């Protein structure tokens, strides 16, 4: 079932040298699945995530034929209506939890506030829900964490708390922008486990934005590869290693591999035609 | 004889609440011309060892020797002619107000080089940057180009040993390949000894012959790259690291 | 990866030369980066307005003898306290019949003189103390910053008054007194910046080339502190002009018959009810110049702030 559909999305920024198109007319859909968006820095992958939530600040502009969430066109909503969507129906996790948590508020208060703004229930209920969520993201000592300030926690802990906060309102869709790249591998796996469970148990749709090809191919169901603001290839995640586009192939070959030693790594030579060719549709 | 030998090195930081032990009783040997990898998670102390070698950590105990010379509290210029370091984040390791020319020129002058102009052009050529880059400022360079400048700066004194602190972790994979190839080439051309720190086991396996796994400030295991490729580490923590690095494994049920 | 649909391609010639990404020499690089700063400064109309006023003021100060219609010191008691718009006295005359416009024009020189001297002494002293304290740390830091605190604890004008009282009245002493009271905030800023800069990788990198503390402070830390100090100085200029005017007003700065703006207000004070322009006109001049400095400072902050210039 398609939950989110994006049709012909553009993100533009005016600069001194003209208009810079960060995202150039991409279309894709998201069901109850893990959709990976991979690309290098500047490919427009993060802008795509922010544009769905209409979080691009002026002078940046977002245009699209439509961005439909369960039949509702988000492009037509007022800023006020959009605020109801953000957090409640679509949540977003950023790369670095240090910048996303308020440093002068305890974790518990921030979580209860997130619950209060989602507009339900008493204080006691909010507290229960917060504790439940901390437990859900595999935090061993929820009570200590509840009363702690963000600086007293490790990066991995902070990221799990961010996830817990984003999950309090039971969103339909979670956009995770490099959620694990600041984390160590073992914590990374725990965080992925949590998100994986949510997709399976709650039927949530997940957009997983990352630069890590190995991780995306092993974690996601479907992958979109972005280059210069366009989707150059869309494929099933487990078929990523059979990708056909020269850019995707080049990226895969430039990675050092543990199991097959190479004397030299292949260096990607970029073909200007890649940036010019039409965007591939990511709609299923 | 070992090019770098470290015995019972401990490094700690005094902070308000007490002391944090970053490195505990670490001993290691690196032979001349070898490329030695240090892997581990953040906070395992792997970068701290590099910083201790070059004298950027004030509080340490134990013994360190480079090329047979015992290291004391202070490092002199002769030491820095032998040992240089490339930092993790090329966006933070170049002075924002200095052009490539100023960075390399000052480094060369500090080491008493005469023909600065020629040497700068040669260094830029060595790291694959044309003379057009010479007068650019860091904000006019991409991440990969910045890291090349940082490598050129480290090569300026013609060192024997290069310490690499996660030199590609801030870069895109395609740029990472370019930088890793460059580092391999430079090692063979200049007969360098590398000590490379990384959290990426694939990168370390590509670059290094010997790998030490660190956990909580201690080296838990030293293995050869072949042992690592065959997935035969002895210590459970090394095994855990190796398995996680292969990608996500879905838990069933 | 940048794809630009640029409507205005660079015009060839000098503009392309200035905007190039590949400068060909040291000077070219310097001029080009200066020009790019100017371009972004130019987009701020308020800052341009401030710059225009200050440029005008500098010109007026330089050409004061040519511009002033009268000698600022010549008294004409028959024509005292003439109102605005009187023939030959556009801004009227003061209690001794001196032409106010001419006095204002000559006063610009004194104001500029004070401003330049203070702007040279106070930030440089502050920069020196702050960076040394921040970089050295330990007991040096403690001693230098406690001295800074002591200076900060006094109200500025009161401290300046004390200095002038000890040194004697006069412009030079006023400048010294103002500078002595103005440096501590700069030391604070410079120290705070130094504390973050000294732990960066680029400072570590230059240490690994065997550079000593003197070189690191002067060549690597100062250039980064200077931009925020320049911004702070321009924002503080208004306060400095007012402090100088305040000292003049209290009779401890410029001495009569010198046409210093504060002293002019002080003289006009006696007639403020019947002949308001005598005090108001120099007051407006002070206001305008202070405002111009503030606007300029705001614009410079946008251009010079090292936190933004990276991208």
3D structure, described in words:
Chain C: InterPro entries: ABC_transport_permease, BP-dependent_transpt_permease, MetI-like, MetI-like_sf, OppC_N. Chain C: Belongs to the binding-protein-dependent transport system permease family. OppBC subfamily. Chain C: Keywords: Cell membrane, Membrane, Peptide transport, Protein transport, Transmembrane, Transmembrane helix, Transport. Chain C: Its main location: membrane. The complex is a heterotrimer of chains A (284), B (253) and C (311). With 284 residues, chain A is an alpha/beta fold. In chain A, the strands form 2 sheets. A 6-stranded mixed beta sheet of chain A has the order 7-8-9-3-10-11, sandwiched between helices. The termini of chain A are close together. Chain A contains 10 helices and 11 strands. Chain A has helices at residues 45-52, 79-85, 107-117, 123-136, 142-146, 155-167, 185-202, 213-219, 246-254, 272-276, and strands at residues 4-15, 18-30, 34-38, 61-63, 66-69, 72-73, 90-93, 173-177, 205-210, 222-227, 230-236. In chain A, helix 3 (107-117) crosses helix 4 (123-136) and helix 4 (123-136) crosses helix 6. Chain B has one domain (2-245): Rossmann fold, CATH 3.40.50. Chain B is 35% helix and 28% strand. Chain B is built from 9 helices and 10 strands. The radius of gyration of chain B is 19 Å and the shape is globular. Chain C has helices spanning 14-19, 26-42, 45-62, 64-67, 100-136, 138-153, 156-167, 171-197, 201-207, 213-249, 261-268, 277-304, 306-309, and one strand spanning 4-5. In chain C, helix 5 (100-136) runs parallel beside helix 8, helix 6 crosses helix 8 (171-197) and helix 7 packs across helix 8. The A-B interface holds A 40-41, 155, 184-186, 188-189, 192-193, 196, 211, 213-215, 217-219, 250-251, 254-259, 261-262, 264-268 and B 41-42, 143, 172-178, 180-181, 184, 199, 201-203, 205-206, 225, 228-229, 240-242, 244-251.
Helix content of chain B: 25-40%
Order of helices and strands of chain B: EEEHEEHEHHHEHEHEEHH
In terms of per-residue confidence, which ranges of chain A show pLDDT below 50 for 5 or more consecutive residues? none
Strand order of the largest sheet of chain A: 7-8-9-3-10-11
Low-pLDDT windows of residues of chain B: none
Count of individual domains of chain B? 1
CATH architecture group name of chain B: 3-Layer(aba) Sandwich
Approximate shape of chain B: globular
Shape of chain A: globular
Number of beta-strand segments of chain B: 10
Strand content of chain B: 25-35%
Structural class of chain A: alpha/beta
Q: Specify Rg of chain B, calculated over alpha carbons.
A: 19 Å
- Quickly name the level 1 CATH class of chain B: Alpha Beta
Mean pLDDT of chain B: 89
By oligomeric state, this entry counts as heterotrimer
């Amino acid at each position: 079932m398609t939950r989110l559909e994006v049709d012909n999305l553009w993100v533009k920024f005016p600069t001194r040298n003209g208009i810079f198109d960060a995202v150039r007319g991409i279309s894709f859909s998201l069901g109850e699945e893990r959709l990976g968006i991979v690309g290098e820095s500047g490919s427009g992958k993060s802008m795509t995530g922010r544009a769905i939530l209409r979080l691009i600040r002026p002078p940046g502009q977002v245009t699209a034929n439509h961005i439909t969430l369960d039949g509702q066109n988000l492009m037509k909503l007022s800023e006020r209506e959009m605020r109801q969507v953000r957090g409640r129906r679509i949540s977003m996790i950023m790369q670095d939890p240090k910048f996303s948590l308020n440093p002068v508020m305890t974790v518990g208060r921030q979580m209860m506030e997130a619950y209060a703004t989602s507009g339900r229930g008493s204080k006691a209920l909010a507290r229960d829900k917060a504790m439940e969520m901390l437990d859900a993201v595999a935090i061993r000592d929820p009570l200590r964490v509840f009363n702690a300030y963000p600086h007293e926690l490790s990066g991995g802990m902070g990221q799990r708390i961010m996830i817990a906060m984003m999950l309090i309102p039971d969103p339909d869709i979670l956009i995770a922008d490099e959620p694990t790249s600041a984390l160590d591998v073992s914590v990374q796996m725990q965080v992925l486990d949590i998100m994986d469970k949510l997709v399976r148990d709650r039927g949530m749709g997940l957009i997983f934005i990352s630069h890590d090809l190995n991780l995306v191919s092993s974690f996601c169901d479907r992958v979109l590869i972005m280059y210069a603001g366009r989707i150059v290839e869309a494929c099933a995640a487990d078929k990523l290693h059979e990708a056909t586009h020269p850019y995707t192939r080049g990226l895969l070959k430039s990675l050092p591999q543990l199991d097959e030693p190479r004397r030299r790594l292949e260096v990607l030579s970029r073909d200007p035609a890649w940036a010019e060719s039409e965007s591939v549709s990511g709609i299923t | 004889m070992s090019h770098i030998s470290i015995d019972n090195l401990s490094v700690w930081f005094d902070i308000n609440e007490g002391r944090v032990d970053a490195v505990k009783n670490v001993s290691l040997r690196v032979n001349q011309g070898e490329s030695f990898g240090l892997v581990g998670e953040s906070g395992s102390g792997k970068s701290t060892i590099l910083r201790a070698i070059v004298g950027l950590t004030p509080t340490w105990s134990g013994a360190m020797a480079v090329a047979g010379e015992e290291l004391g509290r202070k490092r002199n210029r002769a030491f820095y002619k032998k040992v240089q370091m490339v930092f993790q984040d090329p966006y933070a390791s170049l002075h924002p107000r200095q052009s490539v020319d100023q960075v390399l020129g000052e480094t060369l002058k500090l080491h008493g080089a005469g023909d600065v102009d020629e040497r700068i052009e040669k260094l830029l050529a060595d790291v694959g940057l044309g003379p057009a880059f010479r007068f650019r400022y860091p904000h006019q360079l991409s991440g990969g180009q910045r890291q090349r400048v940082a490598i050129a700066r480290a090569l300026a004194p013609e060192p024997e040993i290069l310490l690499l602190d996660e030199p590609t972790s801030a870069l895109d994979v395609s740029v990472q390949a370019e930088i890793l190839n460059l580092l391999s080439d430079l090692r063979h051309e200049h007969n360098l000894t590398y000590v490379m720190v990384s959290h990426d086991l694939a990168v370390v396996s590509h670059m290094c012959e010997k790998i030490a796994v660190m956990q909580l400030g201690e080296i838990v295991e030293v293995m050869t790259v072949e042992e690592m490729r065959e997935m035969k580490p002895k210590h459970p923590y090394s095994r855990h690291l190796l398995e996680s690095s292969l990608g996500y494994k879905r838990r069933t049920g | 990866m940048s794809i630009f649909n640029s409507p205005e391609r660079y015009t060839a010639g000098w503009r392309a030369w200035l905007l190039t990404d590949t400068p060909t020499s040291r000077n070219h690089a310097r001029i080009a980066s200066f020009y790019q700063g100017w371009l972004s400064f130019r987009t701020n109309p308020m800052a341009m307005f401030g710059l225009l006023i200050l440029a005008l003021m500098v010109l007026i100060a330089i050409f004061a003898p040519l511009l002033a219609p009268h000698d600022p010191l010549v008294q004409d008691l028959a024509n005292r306290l003439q109102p605005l718009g009187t023939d030959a006295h556009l801004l009227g005359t003061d209690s001794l019949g001196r032409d106010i416009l001419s006095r204002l024009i000559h006063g610009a020189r004194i104001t500029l003189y004070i401003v330049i001297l203070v702007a040279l002494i106070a930030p440089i002293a502050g920069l020196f103390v702050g960076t040394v304290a921040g970089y050295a740390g330990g007991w040096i830091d403690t001693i230098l910053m406690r001295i800074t605190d002591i200076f900060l604890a006094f109200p500025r004008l009161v401290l300046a008054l004390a200095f002038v009282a000890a040194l004697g009245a006069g412009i030079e002493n006023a400048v010294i007194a103002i500078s002595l009271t103005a440096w501590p905030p700069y030391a604070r800023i410079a120290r705070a910046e130094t504390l973050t800069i000294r732990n960066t990788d680029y400072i570590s990198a230059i240490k690994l080339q065997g550079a000593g503390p003197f070189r690191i402070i002067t060549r690597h830390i100062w250039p980064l502190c200077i931009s925020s100090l320049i911004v702070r100085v321009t924002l503080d200029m208004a306060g400095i002009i007012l402090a100088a005017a305040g000292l003049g007003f209290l009779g401890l700065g410029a001495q009569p018959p010198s046409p210093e703006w504060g002293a002019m207000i002080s003289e006009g004070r006696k007639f403020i009810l019947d002949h308001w322009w005598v005090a108001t006109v120099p007051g407006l001049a002070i206001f305008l110049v202070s405002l111009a400095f503030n606007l300029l400072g705001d614009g410079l902050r946008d251009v010079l702030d090292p936190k933004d210039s990276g991208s």
